């Protein structure tokens, strides 16, 4: 690449950043400063004027509470961009927020963005173009399971095989990694959002209640599990009675919540097993020794690591601070030129997994 004096000059006044562009949350890490932004991937838009009213935390507060002229949208669905224009505005907001926070001028950072391993060429181009349009000097893509593995401290550049299960909001990304590349991978829509939807369906079918996404998410976080607990608990579910239209409160046991999440957790376990079945025998032997690392918000579902360990017979553990492994991996890739170059080549060559 030819030397660009303007790009070099702007780089002196910009903070290179890593971005985990998630379906549920967007996290931004700044080189030398760590994670500085962790906000919902939500944008509030006035449908009449088409103006963006709020982004991130302020926009999420509007979900389910807006008048008909204002909609709170999530521009990413199932881990990929569903609305390019809104995603561009959201990226621009986060990139500028980083520089305004540190009192800098025009932001022209290098940006590394985590993308799902199942992203198509069109989707990859959309993410890249959105970052450049949002003000990035240059934009690099890294597959989320690779970023999650790097952020979890796994030896991704070694010949030893490692396995990561990254359960985000829109997708569960599973990958076996060796020598800086993804050997086998799977992508499933059985993830955090699917768990929330499963709880909403359960409330409607079993208790004849209508509950919102935020209520379902609260129940999942407070009482969700994938494996029998030592002490089962109860949680209040508040919503609207579909028969009378009046408010209704039901006490749910953690057993009920676990049963309602079963279709989703079953699919996650099946995706892990399917990935292992397609893994070369030599790498399977490595996984038996080193185990399976879990990352993403879904990894915090109680007992899911025990469930996967029981179903696969591989040791399974939750990475430290699993919500931030992908963004940490993006930031670390910026620090290591060789790592970034290798994962960039892998992104360019790989086709979406089955």
The CA-CA distance between the termini, in Å, is 35 Å
Mean pLDDT: 86
**Number of strand segments:** 18
Shape: flat
Structural class: alpha+beta
Low-confidence stretches: 1-13
**Rg:** 21 Å
Largest sheet: 5 strands, mixed
Biggest sheet strand order reads 3-2-1-9-10
Strand content: 25-35%
Order of helices and strands: HEEEEEHEEEHEHEHEEEHEHEEHHEHEHH
The helix count comes to 12
Helix proportion: 40-55%
Précis, in short:
The chain has 354 residues and is α+β, with helices and mostly antiparallel strands.
What does this structure look like?
The structure is a single chain. The chain is α+β, with helices and mostly antiparallel strands and 354 residues long. Helix content is 41%, strand content 26%. The chain has 12 helices and 18 strands. The chain has helices spanning 5-12, 57-60, 84-101, 121-133, 144-151, 192-207, 213-223, 254-277, 281-290, 304-312, 325-335, 337-349, and strands spanning 17-21, 25-30, 34-40, 43-46, 52-55, 70-73, 76-77, 80-81, 110-115, 138-143, 162-167, 172-178, 181-188, 209-210, 234-241, 247-253, 292-295, 316-318. The chain has a 5-stranded mixed β-sheet, with helices on both faces. A 5-stranded mixed β-sheet has the order 13-12-11-17-18, with helices on both faces. A 3-stranded antiparallel β-sheet has the order 5-4-6. A hairpin with a 4-residue loop joins strand 11 and strand 12 (172-178). Helix 3 (84-101) crosses helix 4 (121-133), helix 5 (144-151) packs across helix 11 and helix 6 (192-207) packs across helix 8 (254-277).
